[in-house]
Specification:
Blueprint: E1 2-5, H1 23-38, E2 45-48, H2 51-63, H3 71-87, H4 99-119, H5 123-141, H6 150-163
Antiparallel strand pairs: 1-2
Helix pairs in contact: 1-3, 2-3, 3-4, 5-6
Length: about 160
């Protein structure tokens, strides 16, 4: 995911809304609309997730048996958490003019991820992802890149919840 800091403007659609849009395109558009409504314009946070990453996430969610009506909100939750972790991924350098901005944006997106997941009644998902998120944060604090792929963590939590 790329972060672009610019004055607030609505999230651009990665796919133009047309009659020929696939189901994935529709779900991606819906997830981005949900995020647009949630992100406070004062933050000037602009998310531009890569479409291939979003399609891959949707495929994982479908493979795990996530209901179609739940897919856009799951995708929005995934985008928020991935974006928050991305902001905190780069090494800290006091010479970085964007350091404060990255930290604050990451903290904002992480709290929004929690708030949004709770609003969507996804407490089991939050509880299941918490150990993975903590492992990623600890690994980064120790200067190691995260050994856990976020999408794999989602897949494991969704698979475990389906089996329970």
């Amino acid at each position: 995911m790329n972060t672009v800091y610019k004055p607030y403007t609505p999230i651009r659609y990665l796919v133009s809304p047309s009659r020929g849009a696939s189901m994935n395109d529709t779900m991606i558009r819906e997830a981005l609309e949900r995020l647009q409504a949630e992100i406070d314009p004062v933050t000037h946070i602009w998310l531009e997730p890569e479409q291939t990453m979003l399609v891959e996430a949707l495929n994982v969610f479908k493979r795990c048996g996530v209901e179609p009506l739940r897919l856009p909100r799951m995708l929005a939750i995934y985008i928020l958490l991935a974006s928050a972790l991305e902001r905190h991924a780069d090494p800290l350098s006091l010479d970085d003019p964007e350091l404060t901005r990255r930290i604050l944006d990451g903290d904002y997106l992480y709290s929004l991820y929690i708030q949004y997941a709770l609003t969507c009644r996804e407490e089991p998902l939050l509880r299941g992802l918490a150990p993975f998120v903590k492992k990623i944060q600890i690994a980064r604090a120790l200067g190691r890149s995260a050994e856990i792929r976020l999408l794999h963590a989602f897949e494991q939590v969704l698979t475990d919840s389906k089996e329970a």
